[in-house]
Amino acid sequence: MQLRQSITYSHRDSKSLYDGITRAIANAQNVGAAVLFSYSQDWDCANPLLLLASKADSQQPKFYWEEANADLILAAAGTVAEIAIANQDGGDRFDLAKKFIENHLDLAISADDGNVNLSASAIHVLGAFSFYENTGDACADLPDFCEYRTEIEFPSLLFFIPRWLLRHSSSSCILTINDQIQPWDEVDAVLARLEHWRSHLQATSYYQSPTLHEISQIKEVQGRQGWTEIVERALQLIHQGHFQKVVLARAIDVLANRAFDPFQILHVLRCEYPECISFLLDCGMGKTFLGATPEIVLQFKAQGDRLRLRSDALAGSIGRGKTLQEDRLLAEQLLHSEKDRREHQFVIRSICDRLQTMGANIDPQVNTKLLKLSNVQHLHTPITAEIYNSNWLMILDILQQLHPTAAVGGVPRDRAVCFMQQWEACDRGWYAAPIGWLNGNGEGTFGVGIRSGYIQGDRARIFAGAGIVANSQVENEQSETTIKFAALLKALGAL
Ligand SMILES: C=C(O[C@@H]1C=C(C(=O)O)C=C[C@H]1O)C(=O)O
């Protein structure tokens, strides 16, 4: 089955917009339920993050996504359809995500002003998964687990279709307004609703950034053991052959004297890390998850019956030098480190094996390079593949297979993940899990939610992890996480 958004109208005149809405109302009447309608048009906006900050109210879900390298910014707010699955709900969340998309995109009607390409006019679904499918379930027999839950909880799946979305690139800037059309709707009422949102977004508004905060406390989250002791325990288990690799995260709580401004923090990240994907996801309940990730877990594009896929192997890390020469020496050290190469190979293997299990043909050209960010350099191998399937929604099955890769989980995955759940100081929530977007044109990107943290009022909890393999040195792994923390600490004004 080829599921795509059912119809796209290009409207150079108001009659055809009228026809599109009429068709959506007919669809809604046929199925006896609401049907999505979207209208896209050229829009003038130089700063999508500022638009989001000034237009979205605090109760609304918000999403921001910036891939500077791919020349793409998405800024969106509000919701016309949403699925939020709590950790305890059970059910297969990837399957539920798929059904959500099918239910909403299958009968959706899109219209545009005639100047919009298919990618921009397609309806976008935005969201994230939590790291663990069902917190505590995989290790139900482990004692005292609940004590270590994070205080900031996020759904195990959150997908939403925004009320409005701005898709910005250097060549175009398109605004899409989405609406739910009811069987009893009338065309004029729908037109009035579209006009309401259009003028809301067009009205001049100013973003008043809150008064700058000061940091009052920075404190490592303590579990039942300190992080270095957990790393030592993991090394013993690696030595005994229990697992070969486990990625262990530390968490730090940062407290300020007044509320943090998530938009300001994201702005710092996007300027400092242009090679990364800057992201922000706010459920509309005063909690924001944000970060700047260098890692893509799955990027895809449907081309006829084929799906082009990309997934990044990113593992093996070292700091940046203060001088060019020191930086080069560190780079050489990383490129020739047997331990880091081995750690990196685990990730390449885990991604390739799982893609092959799904029937994908991996492109034979696989090149490992250095990825240099302002605070850290990594071994980086983009893996590209192709799979034949007429239903692009199988990407959710692929995502389910890939997550967590050995870059943020371990090898073998189940044993490593169980250890992490048992020993890490707190639940990961959305940290190191897939976050991103897809659209009705069969394309999308999910990043790995690392170099990230949660903001809730005057509190932030940030995460950083490191891959532990045989011969890992505890102090080196700890300083690696300290280097990684620097990104968020700096953006929070805590460094
Ligand atoms: C787990 C994190 O990073 C991951 C672990 C890496 C490593 O161990 O070298 C490198 C990149 C990421 O895949 C993190 O940043 O929190």
Automatic annotation (TrEMBL):
Q: Which domain of life is it from?
A: Bacteria
Q: Which UniProt keywords apply?
A: Isomerase
Domain called Chorismate-utilising enzyme C-terminal: residue spans = 224-484
What is the catalytic activity of this protein?
chorismate = isochorismate
Coiled-coil segments: none
Q: Which GO terms describe its molecular function?
A: isochorismate synthase activity
UniProt EC number = 5.4.4.2
Gene3D superfamilies membership: Anthranilate synthase
Q: What class of enzyme is it?
A: isomerase
Family recorded in the similarity comment: Belongs to the isochorismate synthase family.
Spell out the PANTHER family in the cross-references: ISOCHORISMATE SYNTHASE ENTC
Q: Per its record, how is this protein called by name?
A: isochorismate synthase
Species name for this entry? Pseudanabaena cinerea FACHB-1277
